[in-house]
Design a protein that fits this description.
By secondary structure, this protein is mainly β. The protein contains no helices and 11 strands. The strands form 2 sheets. Strands 2, 4, 5, 6, 9, 10 and 11 form a 7-stranded mixed sheet that branches.
Length: 128
């Protein structure tokens, strides 16, 4: 049973930065494709970024491309989301997700059902 615990959220002013972490236990993340999703109040959960289990491919939502960077540290079993130039529209609960079945590929990385384990989320609030 894989468990994912996010941390690093908080309150930041527009233009600021935060780094989210997702610590995995019960499994080895180097075998998994890992993703970040977010959900704002009253909105559906949306894809933010993913890093493929092959370690080389990364994917981003258009809204965060150039501002956010996903990375992984296999030795620490942790995935990160570095968020720069934050905007009020980035305010949401951010969730880490893992695909332990090898389901994610280039056509479905942005779909929540491609991932089978989820963390509880961490709140990110960006003030204007």
């Amino acid at each position: 049973q894989v468990q994912l615990v996010e941390s690093g959220g908080g309150l930041v002013q527009a233009g600021g930065s935060l780094r989210l972490s997702c610590l995995a236990s019960g499994g080895t993340i180097r075998r998994y494709t890992m993703g970040w999703f977010r959900q704002a109040p009253g909105k559906e959960r949306e894809f933010v970024a993913a890093i493929h289990r092959n370690g080389g491919s990364t994917y981003y939502a258009d809204s965060v491309k150039g501002r956010f960077t996903i990375s992984r540290d296999n030795a620490k079993n942790t995935v990160y989301l570095q968020m720069n130039s934050l905007e009020p529209e980035d305010t949401a609960v951010y969730y880490c997700a893992a695909d332990t079945n090898g389901s994610v590929y280039s056509k479905n990385y942005n779909l929540a059902y491609s991932y089978d384990y989820w963390g509880q989320g961490t709140q990110v609030t960006v003030s204007s």
